[in-house]
Amino acid sequence: xxxxxxxxxGAPVDSGKRANGCLMGPDAYRTAGLxxxxxxxxxxxxxxxxxAPARLRDLPEQxxxxxxxxxxxxxxxxxxxxxxxxATGFPIFMGGDHSLSLGxxxxxxxxxxxxxxxxxxxxxxxxxxxxxxxTSASGxxxxxxxxxxxxxxxxxxxxxxxxxxxxxxVCLLGLRSVDTAERAAxxxxxxxxxxxxxxxxxxxxxxxxxxxxxxxxxxxxLHVSLDVDFLDPAIAPAVGxxxxxxxxxxxxxxxMEILHDSGRVTSLDLVELNPFLDDRGRTASxxxxxAASLMxxxxxxxxxxxxxx
Length: 309
Fold this sequence. Notes:
CATH superfamily: Ureohydrolase domain
CATH architecture: 3-Layer(aba) Sandwich
Mean pLDDT: 95
Strand order of the largest sheet: 2-1-3-8-7-4-5-6
CATH topology: Arginase, Chain A
Helix content: 25-40%
């Protein structure tokens, strides 16, 4: 079976939180050579440019919620963009803050539903992002995508979900900053979740392989959402939500290599890169390297990089 083309789709979403900078993410990935790295693996690559948000609607304020109208507009644009892209290739959504996944996950799930196949989601993140606009203490909508795509109430301003993702089809991997309200909400669900304590004790491969076994058994489609803060800030400083104790360089690459070996991944988010906070582009370069590992680069093929001035 032929490999589908990699479709690079910029999503310069910067409304999901108050600190600016993620809108520069798509261009940083391009500058870091994402297209060239994928092409070097023998893959067909097509850069579809950046998605533009839908028309802004006049929405009533919802407490302390930040950027509601803008985030709804991005979601309205990204749902069809994701749905159409995953039907023709392997989309890589270059963000942009994590609120872009409100649209990308909803869109790929629509496609899966139309194909009669279950959608699974692997959430690589320090946070569970299981809030709703009403429960978020910060009001930042980048903390709500998992809540939205699994069908939690409270998202009336957003597009109605055509195909909610079942809770048991979501795996949260790398958690280390989950607030009390989210912990209580998650405890009432069948969401598969693994924090860094469990990973320290048992390794990162075992829970990932167990989740992938379930994806395979169900003949599911798998969307991977990779947040920069999944990684330890010592190796990936370019994110506004740094939490110490994240995945190491090798742990992150191992995750990507196992995902590639599974043959189950059908779409990818690269989110929360804030180039304004980066150190000579090293976070962008690491995220590009991780995407290349997901698409088939072997450990022996990794290039030597120099960050000398």
